[in-house]
Amino acid sequence: MRRTLFRIVPTLLVGILLTGFAAHRTEAPDRPTKPPTSERAVFEIDKAHSMVGFKVRHLGLSNVTGTFSDYMARVELDPTDLSSMSVAARINVASVDTGNERRDADLRSDNFFDAAQHPQIRFQSTGVTDIDGNMFKLAGDLTIRGVTKSVVLDGELIGVATGPMGKQRVGIEARTTIDRRDFGLTWNRLTEAGGVIVGHDVTILLDIQAVHS
Q1: pLDDT value at position 118?
Q2: Which end of the chain is less enclosed by CB atoms within 10 A, N or C?
Q3: Cβ-count burial of 5 within 10 angstroms (0-12 exposed, 13-18 middle, 19+ buried)?
Q4: Measured CA distances, 168 to 37, 42, 78, 128, 189 (Å)
């Protein structure tokens, strides 16, 4: 009888330990799975291969076009996930160039941009929507002449390539149309026929190449 108990008791103890260990493993919570995150990279604008410009109607007949030569922009982006895009830009108003110095001086004056009091145009994106392939809409806050308004740019990721120095580059085109009067650019004159010299709508045009910093 004693020998039988010696054989049974160890067997029961092993069974209890194994059962408890199995129960402990079954009840233990799974390790949390980290959600996938976009690997955003920082791209700085390459002004030698970019253009920041605008166009506006003159006398309702043709467009006057202009560019800014002094600006900077920072793009944070995972090229495989356009929803990850974030853009911040500053443009120095005094660098405006329409090919006519008299007109440029007028644009810098209080009639329009008032460069002395408001030397910069600023843009800060707030989100990306309506992604369709390489097409997207970029919402953000645009500040001109001290007035900030929400705008939406129609954009396209043109592509991604490796430059001669081995760094990744991205190409982006975007455009939007604003009513300049919303930003305090209200100067105008009437023509003899009753029309206006300068149109109210201004189309902003961006053709950007940015390099991984």
Answers
A1: 97
A2: N
A3: exposed
A4: 20, 10, 11, 22, 48
Name the pTM for this structure: 0.78
Beta bridge partners of 52: 206
Q: What is the mean pLDDT of the chain?
A: 83
Give the number of other CB atoms < 10 A from CB of residue 54.
21
pLDDT band at 193 (very low <50, low <70, confident <90, very high): low
Counting every residue written for the chain, the total comes to: 213
Higher pLDDT, 190 or 57: 57
* Structure tokens given for 121: 């145009």
Identify each DSSP E strand in the chain by its residue range: 41-45, 51-58, 62-68, 71-78, 81-92, 96-97, 120-132, 135-144, 147-162, 168-179, 198-212
Angle among Cα 61, 109, 63 to the nearest 5 degrees reads: 15
DSSP state of 101: H
**Residue found by looking up tokens 């043709």 in the block:** 62
Nearest in space to 197 (alpha carbons), one of 95, 111, 135: 111
Extended beta strands in 113-146, E state: 120-132, 135-144
Q: What is the pLDDT of residues 7-30, one digit of tens each?
A: 544 444 444 334 443 444 444 434
What are the backbone angles phi and psi of residue 190, rounded to the nearest 5°?
-90, 145
Name the residue with tokens 């944070």: 76
**Given the structure tokens 């390790």, which residue do they identify?**
31
